[in-house]
Amino acid sequence: MTNAPAPQLYLVAPAQGPLGAVIEGVARLLDSAAFACVRLPAAGRDEETLSRMGDGLRELVHPYDIPLVLDDHYRLAAHLGLDGVHLTSGARDVRAARAHLDKDAIIGAFCATSRHQGMTAGEIGADYISFGPVAHSALGSGDVAERELFAWWAEMIELPVVAEGGLGLDEVAALKDAADFLCFGEEVWSDPTGPEAALKARLAAL
Fold first, then answer.
1. pTM for the whole thing?
2. How far is 53 from 131, CA to CA, in rounded Å?
3. In which region does residue 25 sit, left (phi positive, over 0), alpha (psi from -120 to 50) or beta (all else)?
4. What 3-state class would DSSP assign to 27?
5. CA dist., res. 44 & res. 186, Å (int)
6. At what angle do helices 195-204 and 19-32 cross, to 10 degrees?
7. Coarse DSSP helix, strand, coil percentages of the chain, rounded to the nearest 5 percent
8. Coil, helix or strand for 97?
9. Distance from first CA to last CA of the chain, Å, rounded?
10. Ranges of residues in the chain whose predicted pLDDT is under 50
11. pLDDT of 4
């Protein structure tokens, strides 16, 4: 795995904040690194807010030729003309999303730490699998997606795999030759040094 290409970068927009601040923050990071995908988180936002956020982010990222996906709400993603959906429910909604979305739409599935969920999601139409968190946290079940999971997936499964949730410098260094994508979100937005400095430090670890 030492000759594996460097992972591509995946950005989750801020989970909170007004539209202008979200757009400004994402724009600064897009100017500082090459991202392969941007995701709009849905938790805590109503349909009107998500629609405004989706429209604003689409206008921002498409000139960079970067796809924009929305958490979970595949019908809204289709209505807004977004590029796909990121399903936080593992394999459960993959078939329904695939049936509703355009055939070229991106469908990602977050499968926590479950190989079985990941393989099932891939078999029924997901375009990528996301595992995480990759660092210990008091949130959720406390389970961690270890490096061995990503290394096994990279060796056995062709479908791209995304590492997300708690990507600090050590996790970036450990996963740089095992994951296809590194997904940065709250760990850079909430970093006391600021998101641009936090991202720069993580890229240096690659």
1. 0.95
2. 25
3. alpha
4. helix
5. 15
6. 30
7. 40, 15, 40
8. helix
9. 14
10. 1-2
11. 67
Q: Any bridge partners for residue 107, and if so which?
A: 85
Q: Which two tokens stand for residue 36?
A: 């392969």
pLDDT at 5 (0 to 100)? 80
Q: Which pair of structure tokens corresponds to residue 190?
A: 């909430």
Structure token digits, residue 163: 């590492």
For residue 134, give both structure tokens.
């990759």
CA distance 70 to 48: 14
- Per-residue pLDDT reduced to its tens digit, 104-117: 999 999 999 999 99
What gap in Å lies between CA 48 and CA 13, rounded to an integer?
A: 17
Residue 144: partners with Cβ closer than 8 Å, 6 or more residues away: 113, 133, 134, 135, 136
Which token pair is 130? 């996301």
User: What's the pLDDT score for residue 2?
Assistant: 45
pLDDT, residue 136, reads 87
Of the candidates 176, 181, 149, 136, which has an alpha carbon nearest to the alpha carbon of residue 163? 181
Q: Are 151 and 178 in contact (CB under 8 A)?
A: yes
**What pLDDT is stored for residue 139 in this prediction?**
65
Residues linked to residue 8 through DSSP beta bridges, in sequence order: 181
